[in-house]
Amino acid sequence: MNPTNPGITPAVRATGVHKAFGSLHVLKGIDLTVMPGTVTVILGPSGSGKSTFLRLINQLETLTGGEIDVDGEMIGYKTVERKGRKVLQTLNDKEVAAQRAKLGMVFQRFNLFPHMTALENVMEAPVHVKHMPKHEARELAAAELARVGLSDRADYYPAQLSGGQQQRVAIARALAMKPEIMLFDEPTSALDPELVGEVLNVMRSLAKEGMTMICVTHEIGFAREVADQVVFMDGGVVVEKGGPEIISNPQEARFKDFLQHVL
Ligand code: ADP
Ligand code: MG
Q1: What CATH number was assigned to the domain covering residues 12-112+158-261?
Q2: Mind listing the pLDDT tens digit for each residue in 150-168?
Q3: Which of 86, 108, 232, 236 makes the best surface tag, with the fewest CB within 10 Å?
Q4: Where exactly are the structural domains of the chain?
Protein backbone atom coordinates (compact mmCIF):
# COMPACT_ATOMS: atom_id res chain seq x y z
CA MET A 1 0.00 0.00 0.00
CA ASN A 2 1.28 3.45 -0.82
CA PRO A 3 1.59 5.17 2.58
CA THR A 4 1.52 8.66 1.09
CA ASN A 5 -1.42 8.55 -1.33
CA PRO A 6 -1.88 12.24 -2.22
CA GLY A 7 -5.68 12.36 -2.58
CA ILE A 8 -6.33 11.22 0.99
CA THR A 9 -5.77 13.17 4.20
CA PRO A 10 -3.29 11.29 6.40
CA ALA A 11 -4.61 10.14 9.78
CA VAL A 12 -1.33 11.26 11.31
CA ARG A 13 1.49 13.20 9.75
CA ALA A 14 4.62 14.06 11.71
CA THR A 15 7.03 16.52 10.14
CA GLY A 16 10.46 17.16 11.63
CA VAL A 17 9.29 16.32 15.13
CA HIS A 18 11.70 17.15 17.92
CA LYS A 19 11.32 16.62 21.63
CA ALA A 20 13.76 17.57 24.36
CA PHE A 21 13.39 17.13 28.08
CA GLY A 22 15.68 19.90 29.30
CA SER A 23 19.07 19.11 27.81
CA LEU A 24 18.05 15.56 26.86
CA HIS A 25 17.25 15.56 23.14
CA VAL A 26 14.96 12.54 22.76
CA LEU A 27 13.43 12.95 19.30
CA LYS A 28 15.59 14.42 16.58
CA GLY A 29 13.44 15.06 13.55
CA ILE A 30 10.82 12.36 13.07
CA ASP A 31 8.94 12.29 9.75
CA LEU A 32 6.10 9.81 9.50
CA THR A 33 2.85 9.54 7.58
CA VAL A 34 0.08 7.18 8.63
CA MET A 35 -2.82 6.77 6.22
CA PRO A 36 -6.34 6.06 7.44
CA GLY A 37 -7.22 2.39 7.79
CA THR A 38 -3.60 1.28 7.96
CA VAL A 39 -1.48 -0.28 10.67
CA THR A 40 1.93 1.15 11.48
CA VAL A 41 4.23 -0.82 13.76
CA ILE A 42 7.06 1.03 15.46
CA LEU A 43 10.02 -1.08 16.51
CA GLY A 44 13.11 0.02 18.35
CA PRO A 45 15.27 -0.52 21.40
CA SER A 46 14.32 0.77 24.81
CA GLY A 47 14.99 4.49 25.18
CA SER A 48 14.78 5.23 21.46
CA GLY A 49 11.83 7.61 21.94
CA LYS A 50 8.89 5.43 20.85
CA SER A 51 6.66 6.17 23.83
CA THR A 52 7.54 9.84 23.69
CA PHE A 53 6.47 9.94 20.06
CA LEU A 54 3.07 8.35 20.84
CA ARG A 55 2.63 10.69 23.80
CA LEU A 56 3.27 13.67 21.54
CA ILE A 57 0.62 12.52 19.04
CA ASN A 58 -1.85 12.26 21.92
CA GLN A 59 -0.75 15.61 23.41
CA LEU A 60 0.40 14.09 26.67
CA GLU A 61 3.66 15.93 25.94
CA THR A 62 4.32 19.09 23.97
CA LEU A 63 6.56 19.33 20.93
CA THR A 64 9.79 21.26 21.05
CA GLY A 65 10.03 21.38 17.25
CA GLY A 66 8.25 20.34 14.10
CA GLU A 67 4.59 19.65 13.56
CA ILE A 68 2.08 16.86 13.98
CA ASP A 69 -1.21 16.83 12.09
CA VAL A 70 -4.00 14.50 13.11
CA ASP A 71 -6.71 14.05 10.51
CA GLY A 72 -5.38 17.09 8.64
CA GLU A 73 -5.43 19.36 11.69
CA MET A 74 -2.30 20.67 13.37
CA ILE A 75 -2.30 19.52 17.00
CA GLY A 76 -2.04 22.07 19.79
CA TYR A 77 -2.55 25.07 17.53
CA LYS A 78 -5.06 26.75 15.27
CA THR A 79 -4.67 29.43 12.67
CA VAL A 80 -6.53 32.67 13.40
CA GLU A 81 -6.73 35.98 11.55
CA ARG A 82 -5.24 38.89 13.43
CA LYS A 83 -5.09 42.32 11.77
CA GLY A 84 -5.49 40.66 8.40
CA ARG A 85 -2.64 38.23 9.04
CA LYS A 86 -2.84 34.54 9.77
CA VAL A 87 -1.18 33.69 13.07
CA LEU A 88 -0.87 30.53 15.11
CA GLN A 89 -2.63 30.44 18.44
CA THR A 90 -2.38 27.69 21.05
CA LEU A 91 -5.57 25.75 21.63
CA ASN A 92 -7.46 26.01 24.89
CA ASP A 93 -8.09 22.94 27.06
CA LYS A 94 -11.45 22.23 25.49
CA GLU A 95 -10.02 22.37 21.95
CA VAL A 96 -7.12 20.10 22.96
CA ALA A 97 -9.63 17.65 24.47
CA ALA A 98 -11.58 17.64 21.19
CA GLN A 99 -8.41 16.77 19.26
CA ARG A 100 -7.42 14.11 21.76
CA ALA A 101 -10.87 12.53 21.49
CA LYS A 102 -9.88 11.33 18.01
CA LEU A 103 -7.24 9.10 19.59
CA GLY A 104 -7.53 6.10 21.83
CA MET A 105 -4.46 4.94 23.70
CA VAL A 106 -3.57 1.63 25.29
CA PHE A 107 -0.54 1.43 27.56
CA GLN A 108 1.71 -1.36 28.77
CA ARG A 109 0.05 -1.10 32.19
CA PHE A 110 -3.70 -1.24 31.90
CA ASN A 111 -4.57 0.98 34.91
CA LEU A 112 -8.17 -0.14 35.23
CA PHE A 113 -10.12 1.24 38.18
CA PRO A 114 -9.85 -1.61 40.71
CA HIS A 115 -13.16 -0.84 42.46
CA MET A 116 -15.16 -0.97 39.21
CA THR A 117 -16.26 -3.99 37.19
CA ALA A 118 -15.08 -4.47 33.61
CA LEU A 119 -18.37 -3.01 32.36
CA GLU A 120 -18.13 0.00 34.69
CA ASN A 121 -14.54 0.63 33.62
CA VAL A 122 -15.64 0.78 29.97
CA MET A 123 -18.66 2.98 30.81
CA GLU A 124 -16.61 5.48 32.82
CA ALA A 125 -15.39 7.84 30.11
CA PRO A 126 -18.57 7.86 27.98
CA VAL A 127 -20.55 8.82 31.11
CA HIS A 128 -18.12 11.26 32.71
CA VAL A 129 -16.41 12.75 29.67
CA LYS A 130 -19.15 12.56 27.03
CA HIS A 131 -22.05 12.82 29.52
CA MET A 132 -23.76 9.88 27.88
CA PRO A 133 -26.88 8.63 29.75
CA LYS A 134 -25.98 5.59 31.86
CA HIS A 135 -28.32 3.14 30.16
CA GLU A 136 -26.85 4.09 26.79
CA ALA A 137 -23.27 3.82 28.10
CA ARG A 138 -24.06 0.40 29.55
CA GLU A 139 -25.19 -0.85 26.13
CA LEU A 140 -22.18 0.66 24.44
CA ALA A 141 -19.81 -0.85 27.03
CA ALA A 142 -21.42 -4.27 26.62
CA ALA A 143 -20.93 -4.03 22.85
CA GLU A 144 -17.27 -3.02 23.24
CA LEU A 145 -16.64 -5.87 25.68
CA ALA A 146 -18.20 -8.22 23.14
CA ARG A 147 -15.83 -6.81 20.53
CA VAL A 148 -12.84 -7.90 22.64
CA GLY A 149 -14.45 -11.26 23.47
CA LEU A 150 -15.26 -10.52 27.11
CA SER A 151 -19.07 -10.52 27.28
CA ASP A 152 -18.91 -13.20 29.94
CA ARG A 153 -16.60 -11.13 32.15
CA ALA A 154 -18.59 -7.86 32.22
CA ASP A 155 -19.31 -8.09 35.95
CA TYR A 156 -15.85 -9.17 37.04
CA TYR A 157 -13.49 -6.83 38.89
CA PRO A 158 -9.97 -6.32 37.49
CA ALA A 159 -8.42 -8.44 40.26
CA GLN A 160 -10.60 -11.35 39.11
CA LEU A 161 -9.31 -11.10 35.53
CA SER A 162 -6.06 -12.30 33.97
CA GLY A 163 -3.60 -9.74 32.68
CA GLY A 164 -4.66 -10.48 29.12
CA GLN A 165 -8.31 -10.00 30.00
CA GLN A 166 -7.51 -6.75 31.81
CA GLN A 167 -5.65 -5.47 28.76
CA ARG A 168 -8.63 -6.39 26.56
CA VAL A 169 -10.88 -4.40 28.92
CA ALA A 170 -8.45 -1.49 28.53
CA ILE A 171 -8.79 -1.79 24.76
CA ALA A 172 -12.60 -1.86 25.06
CA ARG A 173 -12.40 1.21 27.29
CA ALA A 174 -10.46 3.10 24.63
CA LEU A 175 -12.80 1.91 21.86
CA ALA A 176 -15.86 3.09 23.82
CA MET A 177 -14.80 6.67 23.12
CA LYS A 178 -15.07 5.93 19.38
CA PRO A 179 -11.56 7.03 18.41
CA GLU A 180 -10.52 7.37 14.79
CA ILE A 181 -6.99 6.23 15.60
CA MET A 182 -5.71 3.77 18.18
CA LEU A 183 -2.25 4.12 19.70
CA PHE A 184 -0.79 1.04 21.39
CA ASP A 185 2.32 1.37 23.53
CA GLU A 186 3.77 -2.10 24.12
CA PRO A 187 0.35 -3.51 25.06
CA THR A 188 1.67 -7.03 25.59
CA SER A 189 5.04 -6.33 27.23
CA ALA A 190 3.76 -6.70 30.80
CA LEU A 191 1.90 -9.94 30.08
CA ASP A 192 2.88 -13.53 30.76
CA PRO A 193 3.79 -15.13 27.42
CA GLU A 194 0.67 -17.33 27.31
CA LEU A 195 -1.57 -14.24 27.50
CA VAL A 196 0.07 -12.27 24.68
CA GLY A 197 -1.84 -14.05 21.91
CA GLU A 198 -5.33 -13.09 23.04
CA VAL A 199 -4.42 -9.39 23.08
CA LEU A 200 -2.73 -9.61 19.68
CA ASN A 201 -5.84 -11.36 18.34
CA VAL A 202 -8.00 -8.44 19.43
CA MET A 203 -5.58 -6.03 17.76
CA ARG A 204 -5.58 -8.18 14.63
CA SER A 205 -9.39 -8.09 14.44
CA LEU A 206 -9.40 -4.32 14.95
CA ALA A 207 -6.98 -4.01 12.06
CA LYS A 208 -9.27 -6.17 9.92
CA GLU A 209 -12.17 -3.86 10.76
CA GLY A 210 -10.11 -1.06 9.23
CA MET A 211 -9.07 0.75 12.39
CA THR A 212 -6.11 3.10 11.95
CA MET A 213 -3.47 1.90 14.37
CA ILE A 214 0.00 2.87 15.49
CA CYS A 215 1.52 0.09 17.57
CA VAL A 216 4.76 0.10 19.46
CA THR A 217 5.54 -3.54 20.04
CA HIS A 218 8.32 -6.09 20.07
CA GLU A 219 6.01 -8.71 18.57
CA ILE A 220 7.78 -9.19 15.25
CA GLY A 221 5.33 -11.85 14.06
CA PHE A 222 2.45 -9.44 14.54
CA ALA A 223 4.35 -6.73 12.66
CA ARG A 224 5.09 -9.05 9.76
CA GLU A 225 1.51 -10.20 9.50
CA VAL A 226 -0.54 -7.09 10.29
CA ALA A 227 1.58 -4.01 9.56
CA ASP A 228 1.17 -1.97 6.39
CA GLN A 229 4.14 0.12 7.48
CA VAL A 230 7.07 -0.80 9.70
CA VAL A 231 9.20 1.88 11.30
CA PHE A 232 12.48 1.21 13.08
CA MET A 233 13.52 3.95 15.49
CA ASP A 234 16.81 4.27 17.29
CA GLY A 235 18.36 7.19 19.10
CA GLY A 236 15.43 9.50 18.41
CA VAL A 237 15.43 9.11 14.63
CA VAL A 238 13.68 6.86 12.13
CA VAL A 239 16.52 4.64 10.94
CA GLU A 240 14.50 2.61 8.47
CA LYS A 241 10.90 2.37 7.36
CA GLY A 242 8.95 0.53 4.71
CA GLY A 243 6.51 -2.30 4.20
CA PRO A 244 6.58 -5.39 6.44
CA GLU A 245 9.09 -6.98 4.04
CA ILE A 246 11.85 -4.82 5.58
CA ILE A 247 11.75 -7.16 8.58
CA SER A 248 12.99 -10.00 6.38
CA ASN A 249 15.30 -7.77 4.43
CA PRO A 250 16.64 -4.97 6.67
CA GLN A 251 19.09 -2.57 5.04
CA GLU A 252 20.50 -0.62 7.97
CA ALA A 253 23.07 -2.23 10.27
CA ARG A 254 21.30 -0.99 13.40
CA PHE A 255 18.00 -2.55 12.29
CA LYS A 256 19.69 -5.84 11.38
CA ASP A 257 21.33 -5.92 14.78
CA PHE A 258 18.05 -5.15 16.56
CA LEU A 259 16.20 -7.89 14.70
CA GLN A 260 18.89 -10.41 15.56
CA HIS A 261 18.31 -9.67 19.22
CA VAL A 262 14.52 -9.86 19.21
CA LEU A 263 13.96 -12.74 16.82
P1 ADP B 1 11.06 4.12 24.47
O2 ADP B 1 9.57 4.16 24.60
O3 ADP B 1 11.54 3.94 23.05
O4 ADP B 1 11.68 3.14 25.39
P5 ADP B 1 10.92 6.73 25.68
O6 ADP B 1 10.20 7.59 24.74
O7 ADP B 1 10.16 6.21 26.87
O8 ADP B 1 11.62 5.54 24.90
O9 ADP B 1 12.15 7.50 26.28
C10 ADP B 1 13.16 8.08 25.46
C11 ADP B 1 14.12 8.85 26.36
O12 ADP B 1 13.42 9.96 26.92
C13 ADP B 1 14.65 8.05 27.52
O14 ADP B 1 15.99 8.41 27.71
C15 ADP B 1 13.80 8.55 28.67
O16 ADP B 1 14.48 8.43 29.90
C17 ADP B 1 13.55 9.98 28.30
N18 ADP B 1 12.29 10.52 28.85
C19 ADP B 1 11.05 10.08 28.56
N20 ADP B 1 10.11 10.80 29.21
C21 ADP B 1 10.79 11.73 29.94
C22 ADP B 1 10.40 12.78 30.83
N23 ADP B 1 9.12 13.03 31.09
N24 ADP B 1 11.38 13.53 31.38
C25 ADP B 1 12.67 13.29 31.12
N26 ADP B 1 13.11 12.32 30.28
C27 ADP B 1 12.19 11.54 29.70
MG1 MG C 1 8.29 2.95 25.71
Answers
A1: 3.40.50.300
A2: 999 999 999 999 999 999 9
A3: 86
A4: 12-112+158-261
